[in-house]
Amino acid sequence: MKKYKLGYTSGVFDLFHIGHLNILKNAKEHCDHLIVAVSTDELVQSYKNKTPVIPHVERMEIVKSITFVDEVVAQTNRDKVAAMEKHQFDVMFVGSDWKGNALFNKTERIFNENGVDVVYFPYTSNTSSTLLTQVLTKIAQPN
Known about the structure:
This protein has 143 residues and is an alpha/beta fold. It contains six helices and five strands, in the order E-H-E-H-H-E-H-E-H-E-H. It has one domain: HUPs (Rossmann fold, 3-Layer(aba) Sandwich). 43% of the residues lie in helices and 22% in strands. A five-stranded parallel β-sheet has the order 3-2-1-4-5, with helices on both faces. Helix 1 links the parallel strand 1 and strand 2 (31-39). GO terms for molecular function: nucleotidyltransferase activity.
């Protein structure tokens, strides 16, 4: 895989886990400078109908402390084309669970027209923030 100058990825990064770490590590291996956009609580509420367990400001601090991350920004909307225009990255890294999603099909087409690549990394199927939340909720419920 080619080495890029400026990479970008985004996510909620709630209940930080190995899948999050894998995408950040893999992304940094393929770019000189990695920008990570962390979704605000309001944005997550708007499309997932739930509030993250960890507040936005704390999630930003957690992601900022990861050695693979060069820059952290707030993600206030899901418009990847606007993010491309604002940050001028030449590659966006995404988990393979988004491949084929209508949002990313359109984004890929626009990115290609602008010389920006989309690179999909393997999804870590045995863990997710949603799965962790379900397990913790089950443990917390009295018998």
